[in-house]
């Protein structure tokens, strides 16, 4: 049992499968083996061609069935997208992201609410401050002076109301709400 070729026909030699004996691998086979391999190759190629024809026929038949069922390529695409979206929504990554964004949204809402209440409180405090009261009083006095001058203008002063057109003289665009 020391001979590695034991059980092989006499014309076969111990040649590794990975490397052919000659550069192109043709010189190793006998003429009968070459013809047998060529015949087998032809049969395999014929089988491949037959399988391709069968596959085309099956695909045609499947498309006819889909057409009869009303399954158009657009409907199939919609179904595939819908299923893919459901798969995405069921994924752990989506659920974690959704939870994180929900938490961030509620925190942002709370922060904006807090900012609003702080601004409201601060503006209330400013309104009650002595500086603002003094400013408000000054503006009130200025307003009273302006209105008082308007009512007292008889000779040399022209006020906007004194020179404005009467209701009959107004153009239609002057009655626009803005």
List its salient traits.
single chain, 5 helices, mainly alpha, 0% strand, 178 residues, 68% helix
Separation, N- and C-terminal Cα atoms: 110 Å
Main sheet overview: none
Molecular shape: rod-shaped
Classify the secondary structure makeup into a structural class. Answer: mainly alpha
Q: Could you state the order of secondary-structure elements as H and E?
A: HHHHH
| Number of separate helices | 5
> Count the strands?
0
Q: Helical content, roughly?
A: 55-70%
List low-confidence stretches: 1-13, 17-21
Mean pLDDT over the residues: 78
The portion of residues forming beta strands comes to under 5%
Rg to the nearest angstrom?
A: 48 Å
List strands and helices in order, with pairings.
Blueprint: H1 31-69, H2 73-90, H3 92-128, H4 130-152, H5 160-163
How would you sum up this structure in a few lines?
The chain is mainly α and 178 residues long. It is built from five helices and no strands.
Describe it for me?
The protein has 178 residues and is mostly helical. It is 68% helix and 0% strand. It contains five helices and no strands. It has helices at residues 31-69, 73-90, 92-128, 130-152, 160-163. Mean pLDDT is 78; it is low at 1-13 and 17-21.
